[in-house]
Amino acid sequence: MTTPPAPKPRTVRWYWEDFPVGQVREFGAFAVTREAVLAFAAQFDPQPFHLDDAAAQASLFGKLTASGWHTCAMAMRMMCDEYLLESSSLGSPGIEGLRWTKPVYPGDTLSVRLTTLEARPMASRPNVGLVLSKWEVLNQHRDTVLTMQGWGMFGRREPTA
What we know:
Largest sheet: 5 strands, antiparallel
Shape: globular
CATH superfamily: Hotdog Thioesterase
Number of domains: 1
Order of helices and strands: EHHHHEEEE
Strand content: 25-35%
Number of strands: 5
Strand order of the largest sheet: 1-3-4-5-2
Oligomer: single chain
Radius of gyration: 18 Å
Helix content: 10-25%
Distance between the termini: 46 Å
Number of helices: 4
Structural class: alpha+beta
């Protein structure tokens, strides 16, 4: 059995204090490929309109479309690449109000608009701050294809007692 490689040392660039209310970040240019749509669907969401061109053409989508869960996963990857892997992220207690507003097709290019809605220290843990964010995933036409809100937990740069 092979031992997995040790994780890379993490440089923390962003703490809870770096997410002020009203801040908007736009990032990403994630290309949606047919191969990735098919692979994700085969493993996690094997509905016919995600796997088969004829079934997709007969569906409400009219052509092969990515799973909404795949869209969430692509958004998460863009967030990791943009800032989460260099932040004091401590995870998330969950998301709220997830909506898939338009289909995502192979050939689309996705980006993310992230807006900080609320930021407050965690009452029970002074070294942790909570951030409520609104995620909007956009396609290359700037159409919104996904929206959701979620809380993130981040270490604080200067915790108070």
